[in-house]
């Protein structure tokens, strides 16, 4: 598993992260949206990813799974850009990345916008629905929150 803050990402890693996200969110899900939101290179953003051949493999040029953690204000963070390449699904890779992101959170509360069919998966990590379902880029989503830990 790899981890880097936005300000320490090298160009080839950023390219690999954006390539995977475009393959999953734009090409596979046929959802044309502006993924590049200005937060990927922010020093407070933390990227977690697994290179091809992961876990525990060498550097790898391709990324097979990724999760992004962003700061949303005092005591609050957001998990987003959660995806895995089709060839890497069903191997528990997202679980590894989610565990790393949640460990990084510490006691902070966390938000995410889950695709509705993935709500049960995120519930396993302590997230609960917080609001009504909405459609974003043609895909139903639900807002979720994991409360701060005491």
UniProtKB/TrEMBL annotation:
GO terms for molecular function: acyltransferase activity, transferring groups other than amino-acyl groups. Pfam families: Acetyltransf_10. PROSITE patterns: GNAT (PS51186). It comes from the Bacteria. Residues 4-149 form the N-acetyltransferase domain. InterPro entries: Acyl_CoA_acyltransferase, GNAT_dom. Signal peptide: none annotated. This is N-acetyltransferase domain-containing protein.
